[in-house]
Amino acid sequence: MPRFVSYKNFFLLTVLVGVTLLVMRFTHLERPRLTPLEAAVKDSLAPVQGVLMKMAGTLRNGTQFIVSLGRLEEENKELKEQVSLLKGRLYLQEELKQENKRLKELLQYKDRYQQNFSVKTAAVIGRDPGNWFGVVTLNKGSKDGILKNMPVVTPAGLVGKIVAVSATTAQLMLITDPRSGVGAMVQETRIPGVLEGSTAGSEETRLIHVPKDTELANGQTIITSGIGGTFPKGIPIGKITAVSDEPTGLFKTATVVPFADLHRLEEVLVITTVYNPDLLPPMEGN
């Protein structure tokens, strides 16, 4: 029995080796021709292989497209962030440019009139939304030498006066507030009057109590008269844009638009000391 098994195994081994050699012979790459069976199999599988190749190519291209979409989305996000950063820098640069321009004008004003009065720079830090042209809050107070009734100006012209003070802040009443009153006069004719805020709460003021027989005309410049002692003489206020008769018929009223842009106040100058009010020359208006 063992000998028969060994002969059987040897026979099977011999057959397998022979088949292997035949397969190697008929499938060798350097053969000039394929066997009929190989040719038939290749021909029958060719269409299927073509479809599979196209499907594989489509799948590969689709995968690459999806991956590229992810990259494009990430690149687009990065580009948007860079654009936002650059815009922010441009806005900051423009803001610094505008601030530098305003501060330069304030400094030039202080240098120009340092012989007439001394001033302190203050920033507007608050407004009443219901009374935009009435009272604003400044970031300087009594500890900075700010006192009640001190006049406030910008390089363009008169703004108002301080009406209340705390240690670190001050309330500034604008000349457009209806409660405001400023001794004023026409620069060209020296005719006096009183400048008051508009009851409509607009950016306009009115020159009132001007005698009817005096000459008022559009374009004339209104300056402070120095009467009353609060405001130094000669500070420009604004220009006349309209003239009308008062209801009593005894006086004229002129609408005056301030030189200072009270709608967009950011920094102002508080006049803390007037050296000689009588010698203060009228300043040129806009």
From TrEMBL:
UniProt keyword Nucleotidyltransferase present: no
Any one GO cellular component localisation term in the record: plasma membrane
Keyword Signal listed: no
Gene3D superfamilies tied to this protein: Rod shape-determining protein MreC, domain 1, Rod shape-determining protein MreC, domain 2
Keywords of this entry: Cell shape, Coiled coil
Similarity remark: Belongs to the MreC family.
Known role: Involved in formation and maintenance of cell shape.
Protein name, UniProt field: Cell shape-determining protein MreC
Organism of this sequence: Desulforamulus hydrothermalis Lam5 = DSM 18033
